Amino acid sequence: MTQQNSKKEAFYSITASAHGGRAGHVDSEDGQLDVRLAVPQALGGGGGAGSTPEQLFAAALAASFESAMGAAARAEKYPEFGVMEVTATVGLVEDGDAHDLSVALDIKLPGLERQQAQHLVDRGRAICAFNRAMKGQIECRLHDA
Fold first, then answer.
1. How far is Cα 19 from Cα 91, in angstroms, rounded to an integer?
2. What CATH number is attached to the domain comprising 87?
3. In whole angstroms, what is the distance from residue 131 CA to residue 36 CA?
4. CA angle (68, 106, 81) in 5-degree steps
């Protein structure tokens, strides 16, 4: 079943498939992604070698948010500054028999004044597709470098 969130046509899309749920693997149609999954002990699994959907989401979110801030910095012609660092933490929170996500970003923008750095974080929130999809429910923590 295909579900579309808007009437706009996607200018980029990729398809990935899961095989075996949390204990299986995921792969993409273009062959660039092929990741073995493992069920963590916290969810009743044995842990072991393999990633989790939460790890994959955290990695994708961190990369997307950092790129969004970089795009804003380039568009606004920010002077050269240190290397950005975005670390995403994704957790599962119990909600009865379901789970919700808790998501936080720890952001370091060395070489920028606090006001400039906060502006880039705010622009990242407005631009990042993952943040927008989560309706801004991502906690952003700006740390001094």
1. 22
2. 3.30.300.20
3. 26
4. 55
